[in-house]
Amino acid sequence: MFGPRRPGSLVPRPFGNSSIDGFDFDFESPTKDMVLVGERLRSRIETTTLSVGKKCLFTVALQWTEEYGEWV
């Protein structure tokens, strides 16, 4: 619905020709299964790059936690 426009598609596009090109996840508490989420996002990025020809990036940022006193 919010990916690249596909020829002949009748799916409503509430934002016109716009497409999502990034996400920013900011988890404030311990989160499980992020490796799986990362793997699936990476797979979709590769598929999109091949089908649309638009370069996509997958990035992460470390976060300092007072609880552990270290970067996680």
Describe the structure.
- There is one protein chain.
- With 72 residues, the chain is mainly α.
- The protein has a domain at 34-71.
- The chain is built from 1 helix and 2 strands; from the N terminus they run αββ.
- The protein has one helix at residues 34-52; strands at 64-65, 70-71.
- A two-stranded antiparallel sheet has the order 1-2.
- The radius of gyration is 16 Å and the shape is elongated.
- The termini are far apart.
The general outline is: elongated
**Cα radius of gyration in angstroms:** 16 Å
Report the biggest beta sheet as strand number plus sense, adding barrel if it closes. Answer: 2 strands, antiparallel
- What is the H/E order? HEE
Number of helices: 1
Find the structural class using helix and strand composition: mainly alpha
Helical coverage, percent range: 25-40%
Distance between the termini: 34 Å
The low-confidence parts are none
**Spatial order of the strands in the main sheet?**
1-2
As a percent range, the share of strand residues is: 5-15%
Please report the total strand number as a whole number. Answer: 2
Global mean pLDDT: 76
GO molecular function: hydrolase activity, hydrolyzing O-glycosyl compounds
